[in-house]
Amino acid sequence: MDTITIKDIARALNISTSTVSRALRDSYEINPETKRLVTEYAERLNYRPNPIALSLKENRSRVIGVIVPQIANNFFSQVINGIEAIAYNRGYHVIIFQSHESYEREMLTVQQAVARRADGLLISLASGTHDVTYLRALQEKKLPIVLFDRISKDLDTLSVTADNFGGAFAATEHLIKAGRQRIVHLTMPAHISVTQERLAGYRAALEQYGLVYDENLVRYGQFGPDEVESIVDELLKLSPDAFFAAGDRLAIGCLSALKKRNVAIPETVSLIGFTNITVADLLAPAMTTVEQPSLEIGQLAAEQLINLIEGKKTTAPPTSLKIPTQLIVRASSQS
């Protein structure tokens, strides 16, 4: 099939190409009825903007750079799906980079994105990133940047995250209401924003229900496959009755370690994760987890960035946008 163009739409509707172009850009100069006719016709014939033509006309690359810690992480792969869906519909291409949790690689990939003339950046910070001075320097050069999931309070820009505090509070509250009182919290490095937010939710639930916060029941780290089992061994000496992990992959590591040690789940120890990985309901027992709205985070982050690129939010102050989470209760926490 031949690709439909603005000229084709204009000819079919007997209007000028400039009217079609402005209607597709949602210009205030075009009346609502004309916009409706143009957009409905364009959608019916699957019209898509030509990125090369647009980039030449607008002096923009129509490219967005996306930097994530790991594409293999199911959460980030779903975020990327959301980003690409919005970018495609608005005539942008996406180039994806991985930092592999390294500050140095993050800086390098950002430099590569800038070298390829990306119009803006979507970034989830690496666990190794403590300093965002290099991003602030790019921002001062008017490069639009939106942070998602892992953010920094030291960078004054738009951010899109899940409600990590609310999700952690709901998970901890669920365990407390099930009669659990010695709840382990396994989480990521302490400086990461999602670590701080989920820890705060965990602590707030303990406080609300009159339980003492015990630092011995909290562990921070990257927790590779070989580390989880030794950590679980240490924690079992403290007689916990529940494990709340700040990520599903970490929770699955706990599940495996507990089963190897013949610890009954949930009869002896309850288990909750965070993300709602696709196999969570297929595990034995099926795993209770906090559903993190990954697709929606990607879509909203992409929308915010493209609005910044296109100057639709030049006067709006930077804001932090949070998307609600949901606790999905399954067998691993139901005794």
UniProtKB/TrEMBL annotation:
CDD domains: HTH_LacI (cd01392), PBP1_LacI_sugar_binding-like (cd06267). Residues 4-58 form the HTH lacI-type domain. One of its GO terms (molecular function) is transcription cis-regulatory region binding. Keywords: DNA-binding, Transcription, Transcription regulation. PANTHER family: HTH-TYPE TRANSCRIPTIONAL REGULATOR GALS, LACI-RELATED TRANSCRIPTIONAL REPRESSOR. This is LacI family transcriptional regulator.
